[in-house]
Amino acid sequence: xxxxxxxxxxxxxxxxxxxxxxxxxxxxxxxxxxxxxxxxxxxxxxxxxxxxxxxxxxxxxxxxxxxxxxxxxxxxxxxxxxxxxxxxxxxxxxxxxxxxxxxxxxxxxxxxxxxxxxxxxxxxxxxxxxxxxxxxxxxxxxxxxxxxxxxxxxxxx
Length: 157
Known about the structure:
Blueprint: E1 6-9, H1 10-39, H2 48-72, E2 74-77, E3 92-97, E4 102-109, E5 120-122, H3 126-131, E6 139-144, E7 147-156
Parallel strand pairs: 1-2, 4-5
Antiparallel strand pairs: 3-4, 3-7, 6-7
Helix pairs in contact: 1-2
């Protein structure tokens, strides 16, 4: 069974690589020192510091495994290959919410990099999926829990 491809921008790839490096080089050593100190306090069966350090170690190892899996299955979008005529992953779009006459800008990214409050929406989100392959000037409709929302695409970068 093959793993699902993880779509990343080059910026997202760099960020994950830095996080992985920090976890492996810095955080592992910090937690190992905490475990060593906690062991020095005696009875491990009732040692809260030891338990907390072991839990932290497990969290770090799980995050390392997750990042390594993401990097193994990563498909990096080359921003230089974007044509700017139609929306794809890596496109920055300015859209108009027609009902509220409100402009918003988003960067379309893979789900791993998604941060809607930071202006980064996933290609798998309802809005992100609806925007894909459309061109400047197009009007799209997105089905949302509160009903259909219409947007007009103002600019693609």
